[in-house]
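Sequence only, no structure available. Ideas?
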Amino acid sequence: MTTIDQPVVSVHDAVPIVDPEFQALVPALHHDERALLEQSLTNEGCRDPLVVWQETGILLDGHNRLAICTELGITFATTSLSFESRSEALLWVIENQLGRRNLTDIDRIALAAQREPLLKKRAEANRCVRTDLVQNSAGGSQGVRTRDVAASAAGVSHDTYTKGKLVLLQGTPELVQAVRDGDASIHAAAEIALLPTEEQRDIVSKGYIRASANKLRNRRSQNTGNNEWGTPRQFIDAVREVSGGSIDLDPATHANAQARIQATTFYTADDDGLTKPWFGRVFLNPPYSKTLIKRFVDKLVEELTSGNVESAILLTNNETDAAWFQKAAAHANHICFPAGRLKFLRPDGRPSRNGPLQGQAFLHFGAHAERFVEVFAKVGIIVTPTLPAKEKA
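Reply:
I predicted one. Tokens follow.
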């Protein structure tokens, strides 16, 4: 519960504590903005009191004013708010910042993204839900609803929110700043954020963000051939059996394949599953090109780690020496190496003329691990990954 004291409780007699975590929630001022604020404080004084967390003395609102007042010797007043926990205090700061009119969309998305886990923590505390238990199948849907709430708080569409998070997570600081400065849209920056760091910086420095983004979209929409490997029905049936009879999401598929897979939600190459939310029980047979398969594995690990994905089965080439395979294996519960190579299908459902040049592997993540072993023991050898000693440490 939050309570508000009288408007002014002290006048510069106790300097508030600047906590880095709280300060990081306050978007930095541009040079012009700081100059205007400094002029206002010099001419009119600090009219509005700084807001302090009563129990700790941590500054909640007024970081920029405090810095300028301290530097110029301007007197300020404080008022205090009472919070029962650090999470509640952080939530207040985020929601207070979201109420500002001059924030860019990317800054609002950054705040709303940090708000998500705090709201989840509050809800779990209110329901007295244990957080150390594996979530059930409703967890994926709840994750989507939480993101809808976050997108609404940021004042953007669900798609823009998802792409904004992608830019913040994978984009270089230069790319994020370009969006903040209005030199690139969030949607264009999301395309660039999927590239290696040096390529991102080169594109930003040359001012080619929009043109490069359009080129990447066109290249992806024309992406066919070996990236379209349909999974035979018997293996889809095995995946469905492990996951309790249904697949919530297939994030890398062809529309025709859904006659076999029947996922509740699916993304095709045109949808670009790398920029969409993942949730629930996932089956992933990603594009096999080296660049794309790495990105899909990175996305899978990210969504598993964040708790959005409850369980997943990844079907891929058994390139055990590849960095992306090593990463996937390090997070997997079990791996099944099928007896014999799979006979993949074309998008029209007919067998592919050109089979894969190597064997495949099914990697299992998250819930239903014992069921995976039971079902896929009929498909091939099951192994349980053991991390190297340095990773265990």
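Residues 1 and 57 are 17 Å apart (CA to CA).
Hope that gets you unstuck.
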